[in-house]
Amino acid sequence: MLTLVVRFVLLMSWVTVRFIPKQSIRKYIPVTILASLITVTVSFIGVHYEFWEVKGGAKKRLWNILTIVIGIFPLGCLWIFHLTFGKFWLYVLANFLNNIIYAYPIVSVLEKIKFIKYKKFNRMSHILVTMTYSLLLYKYQMFLTPITKNQEK
User: Residues 133, 38: contact at Cβ < 8 Å?
Assistant: First the structure.
């Protein structure tokens, strides 16, 4: 039951997208989709190589992973890019704080409710991996920005 509540809360966080301007959504949706693809790929690789364990049967595991991948992660990506793109060090700081908050208090709660459990992966590994791909995402958005500027004219 608690897992269902967590899923609901993660998906309901999408209500906040109403506060992001449509222009920002259009500008950052490609990088958000890439972030989601990376997250789902890393999630399934992590389960396969037992870096972490997603509790439950196959159906429950899939729902737990998808809740995170289509729930809070893409929304966080949209918000972080909307608020920080063009200010690299602010972007790095926002991602670092976001990753620390996820890696420590949030993962601890998710482990207690048997949503996910780190096995061969630890919290520092999580921060290193996510910071690495957040830098790749920033570079990707820098590549896209001239294209989107030309399309807006």
Answer: yes
